[in-house]
Structures are given as structure tokens and as C-alpha cells.
Amino acid sequence: MTLQVEFWTVVGFLITFMSFVGGMAKWLFSKAEERQAARFASLSSRCNSPPPTGASWKKNLCGLRRIYR
Description:
Keywords: Membrane, Transmembrane, Transmembrane helix. With about 70 residues, the protein is mainly alpha-helical. The chain has a domain at about 1-45. It has helices at about 5-50, 55-69. The longest helix is centred in the middle third of the chain and has 42 residues, at about 5-50.
């Protein structure tokens, strides 16, 4: 038993598969970017709030945020 498939059919399947993979990658990167934006917003709100007494770690955390921007 032999299976015969035309060349252009295979090319079409390949292009369709590559488009699917690209779409999934784009979706995953957008979700990761949303999560990262939420983390930075949370960090920013923590740095802008008044520090409690004895919280030297917060000062260091805000300093790191300025370095990585």
C-alpha cells in the first residue's frame, strides 16, 4: 500500500503548521508580557508607598528597580 501526496499539499500543510506555531508563540509571549507588566506595577506601587519602620530591604528593592529600567 502506497500513500501519494502532492508536493504543494505538503507545502501547504507545512505553511499551516508554521503559522500555528508562530501564533502560539505570539500568544505565549503576550501573556508573559502581561504578567511582567503586572509584576512591575506591583513593584512600583510598593516602592511608592510610605515605608514602614526598619524596612531597609524596601530601599534596596527600589534602588534595584532604578538600575534595571
